[in-house]
Design brief:
Length: about 130
Amino acid sequence: MGSEKRIDVVGAVIIDQGLILCAQRGPSGSLAGMWEFPGGKIEPGETPQEALQREIDEELDCTVLVGQQVESTRHQYDFGIVTLTTFYCHLVAGTPTLSEHAAVRWLAPAELSELAWAPADIPAVEKIQADLPS
Ligand SMILES: Nc1nc2c([nH]c(=O)n2[C@H]2C[C@H](O)[C@@H](COP(=O)(O)OP(=O)(O)OP(=O)(O)O)O2)c(=O)[nH]1
């Protein structure tokens, strides 16, 4: 069944001055308009950390240092089963610049709940709020 397709995805929880970068998916495609942590699919032969650095370079034109894992959760969408693993990241070079996303916002941990997150991201959002109380 197509719905059983497994997709391994990494997401970056980029923290700068206590705020977290939140990215809004574009208006077309899967999960259109929903908020996510920038990142994408792990390619064959890549570690999750390598995939994340590559995706952030491609999507936001900046370089991150990948730190500790935040969460790893599995969510079944109609297009497949996404395993989303998120990592705390810090900017080391460049300034995040929009290319694929519709918008970015920098929010304090307590403000993250205001956004319409992709369903797979909810456990990560809750973990961040527990790790970084405002
Ligand atoms: N990058 C990212 N993707 C997420 C998050 N949460 C979540 O459910 N996803 C889903 C959306 C996509 O189905 C998949 C990530 O793949 P991608 O970023 O390459 O997405 P895409 O839509 O460009 O992929 P595609 O249409 O080319 O297949 O994981 C998240 O926080 N970050």
